[in-house]
Write a structure and sequence with these properties.
By secondary structure, the chain is of the alpha/beta class. About 40% of the residues lie in helices and about 15% in strands. Helix 8 links the parallel strand 5 and strand 6 (about 210-215).
Length: about 260
């Protein structure tokens, strides 16, 4: 069958999907720790494993410290203490679950029901605060918010509000959920970094930047097409993963 000229031209010159072949060149070795989701027991097991493998190097936590697991308060307090003691070594980024918590503190009646459905109940319980029902009055939601705020304390809330959404070294960026592959990282919207982008998992970046992230649960942490996924679903699988990122190599530790 003879194709029309326009169709033959399209088939011959159609563009291919972008590929990713940049070397992995961080300026320093570091660990990136995946979504903890209230599993302080796993975090306690992972910390000495990192120390044994590469003592003293920077530890970057990709966010989602709270919700779903039973020990969210303990995780937040541990990370806050660690970063306060060694601010140059410990970097904590914001995840979408921290974003939901902060939205709840700012607008309890509007943001509370959604947060409760996605793990906020467990976080509230870890601070020994009871949650309101979805149909509760605005006054009740405000009272619950005030109780949580009191249980958390000013220092912990301030720390959460100041969490960054991006950390970079060399051609490696660490963030929580994803980035728009068509935009430079410095032009990304913070909500995209925290909540993700529909093209992130399917379209490689063309600027040679590797992205280490969490947010999307995988059975095994892996490095593929310039993306290093560290989220092994700790709250459900009992496996918390850290990526040890060095020049041209990624190794994974599991606890």
């Amino acid at each position: 069958m003879a194709y029309p000229v326009a169709m033959r031209f399209f088939k011959r010159f159609r563009t291919s999907k972008p590929t990713f072949s940049a070397p992995l060149t961080p300026d320093e070795p570091f660990f990136a720790i995946g979504d903890i989701h209230g599993r302080d027991d796993l975090l306690a097991r992972l910390l000495p494993l990192m120390q044994d493998r590469a003592p003293g190097i920077r530890q970057v936590f990709v966010g989602d410290y709270i919700d779903r697991g039973e020990e969210s308060a303990q995780v937040l307090r541990r990370l806050h203490e660690m970063q306060s003691a060694e601010p140059q070594k410990v970097i904590c980024l914001k995840g979408n679950h921290e974003d939901m918590l902060l939205n709840f503190l700012d607008a309890p009646a509007r943001s509370g029901p959604r947060w409760m459905r996605y793990g906020g109940l467990q976080t509230m319980a870890s601070f020994r605060v009871g949650a309101a029902s979805e149909s509760a009055s605005e006054e009740t939601w405000n009272e619950v918010r005030d109780m949580l705020r009191l249980a958390m304390g000013d220092k912990l809330e301030t720390w959460l509000r100041e969490l960054p959404t991006l950390w970079q070294t060399g051609n490696v960026a660490v963030l929580h959920a994803g980035a728009d592959p068509a935009l430079p990282l410095e032009d990304q919207d913070e909500q995209t970094l925290v909540w993700g982008h529909p093209a992130f998992m399917t379209t490689p970046r063309e600027d040679g930047t590797w992205v280490v992230h969490g947010h999307t649960v995988v059975d095994e942490a892996a490095s593929e097409a310039g993306r290093i996924n560290t989220d092994t679903g700790a709250y459900a699988t009992g496996v918390l993963t850290a990526a040890h990122v060095t020049q041209d190599e990624v190794a994974f530790l599991r606890a």
